[in-house]
Design goal:
heterodimer; A: about 375 residues; alpha+beta; Cytochrome-c3 Hydrogenase, chain B; four-stranded antiparallel sheet; 16 helices; about 50% helix; globular; B: about 150 residues; Alpha-Beta Plaits; 7 strands; about 30% helix
């Protein structure tokens, strides 16, 4: 970084956000700048804090279900999944196999939808407008499929303790299969349009390199950690639900730059499609909801459950005191840890590169603030 | 020097390929729906705000005003009142209000109903200028549907 005498004398502060389009929500980053170089980026959180954890501690555990979807509205079903599984583990509820299959299929569909939205939004950050239209076109198909069974388009409240709200039908199976076929064809288009594009490569290659050591130090998870070459995926390393029954790979990057994180997500979408395909092939018959007592009692003691959300490891920690209301519920969200390395990573880089790095982290602000 | 030119070549090629994708899309069918003028059919499973089920035989509601939905609601959106009318053995529903500003469409009320007297409406075109416009009188809505 070259700094002239004039720039040294005239360092300034720049507020990026809370209404900046590339912060994807109400995130403020205070940047100390020298010319076009960032000296010290400091994220400021708290603009959209809604006390979700406190709300969980003041009402019966069933009533917290709609809140889980509102923490991460882009990938809501894994949030549903984590919470229902947590309470099921705590209360010792058995879930029918068909319900577990439906949960995995819908969660993976939601993951693909989240990655598609990220792909479009990331390219929008980098100045390319077209890919988001292609991404939205595909994502729209997933939303239609999910809307047909869940009844809502974004903030789903579909899973229930002991199963799911509504059974899937042949229409769902057929349209999901048709969508998988379609998306595989579209991957070719994305590769031509984005992955091979020279401008995109120049904006992402060797930018924002997160070393494996640094990723571990900040507790990064999900595609951001895997981009740095560490193959950690909750679905493989700490298997939950019926994930061990499926054959899928955990894609990893090489050096941990923005391009690696991009590639990991694109390859992850392919793996998600593989999981959905296998689950549809083996979909068992049977009930989708177990009999659950009306007032679920949470026995004294603590319990933890972690799932792999689209952005990384999401873990719920619950302390019960024998009543139906949780004594304490702590949600560990991936985006918060992923963002925390920004002050170290963003020192001495160009402002456009900071935008590229922020986009590549796939941040969802309501999830960080809760 | 050689690398410089090969980079220009591969870079230029990638841009042309990308433009090719856009060019192809020009001749593909239009997927955009011109919303206020055109509308897509909504799925029958869509979850709008709740409505009382109209019993076609008795031409009235099925609700027994037990208050289960009121209890099940995580956000206290529902307010119901049942009164014993003269000559009737059981309570009759006289008030059913929904504060839609607080509702998160989770469906707990519909699931908790012992008589299946609640259903989701198909309304999604909801916009108004005041908060009070979303305090729905569900019973009145039922009266309007009655023939």
């Amino acid at each position: 970084m070259l700094e002239s005498d004039f720039q040294k004398k005239n360092r300034f502060f720049l507020n990026m956000g809370p209404q900046h389009p590339s912060t994807h929500g109400v995130l403020l980053i205070v940047l100390e700048m020298s010319g076009e170089y960032v000296l010290d980026p400091q994220p400021v959180l708290g603009f959209i804090h809604r006390m979700h954890e406190k709300m969980a501690e003041s009402r019966p555990c069933q009533s917290f279900m709609p809140n889980t979807a509102r923490m991460d509205y882009v990938c809501a079903l894994p949030y549903n999944h984590g919470y229902v599984s947590l309470v099921e583990r705590k209360a010792g509820i058995e879930v029918p196999r068909r319900a577990e299959y439906i949960r995995v299929i819908t969660s993976e569909l939601n993951r693909v939808a989240s990655h598609l939205l990220w792909l479009g939004a990331y390219l929008l950050d980098l100045g390319a407008f077209t890919p988001i239209l292609y991404g939205f076109d595909d994502r729209e198909h997933i939303l239609d499929i999910l809307e047909d069974i869940t009844g809502s388009r974004l903030t789903y409240c579909y899973y229930r303790f002991g199963g799911v709200n509504q059974d899937i039908d042949d229409k769902f199976v057929d349209s999901t299969r048709a969508f998988i076929k379609r998306l595989r064809k579209r991957f070719v288009i994305y590769e031509k349009l984005v992955t091979k594009n020279i401008i995109f490569i120049k904006r992402t290659e060797n930018i924002g390199i997160v070393s494996p050591d640094m990723a571990l130090r900040y507790g990064m998870t999900g595609p951001n950690l895997r981009g740095s070459g560490i193959a950690y995926d909750v679905r493989k390393n700490e298997p939950y639900s019926i994930y061990p029954e499926f054959d899928f790979e955990v894609p990893v990057g090489e050096q941990g730059d923005c391009l690696d994180r991009y590639m990991v997500r694109v390859r992850e979408m392919e793996q998600s499609l593989r999981i959905i395909e296998q689950a549809l092939d083996r979909l068992p018959e049977g009930p989708v909801r177990a009999k659950v007592p009306k007032n679920i009692k949470l026995s004294p003691g603590d319990c933890n459950f972690a799932v792999e959300a689209a952005r990384g490891e999401l873990s719920y920690y619950l302390v019960g005191d024998g009543t139906g209301v949780p004594y304490r519920l702590k949600v560990r969200v991936p985006s918060y840890s992923n963002l925390s390395c920004l002050p170290e990573l963003g020192r001495g880089i160009l402002l456009p590169d900071l935008v590229s790095i922020l986009g590549s982290f796939d941040l969802v602000i309501p999830e960080m603030d809760r | 020097m050689k690398q410089y030119f090969s980079e220009i070549y591969t870079g230029g090629k990638s841009l042309v390929e990308g433009l090719g994708v856009t060019f192809k899309a020009l001749f593909q069918p239009i997927v955009t729906v011109q919303y206020p003028r055109e509308e897509i059919d909504i799925t029958p499973n869509y979850r709008g705000h709740i409505d009382l089920v109209l019993d076609p035989e008795k031409n009235t509601f099925l609700c027994i005003s037990c208050g289960m939905c009121e209890k099940a609601c995580p956000s206290d959106c529902i307010k119901i009142k049942g009164e014993k009318l003269e000559g009737e053995k059981k309570k009759t529903l006289v008030l059913f209000e929904l504060d839609f500003t607080k509702c998160s469409l989770c469906g707990a009320c519909v699931e908790s109903c012992p008589k299946d007297a609640l259903e989701f409406s198909q309304e999604y075109n909801l916009a108004a200028f005041s908060r009070e416009a979303f305090h729905f009188d569900i019973l009145k809505r039922l009266e309007e549907r009655r023939t």
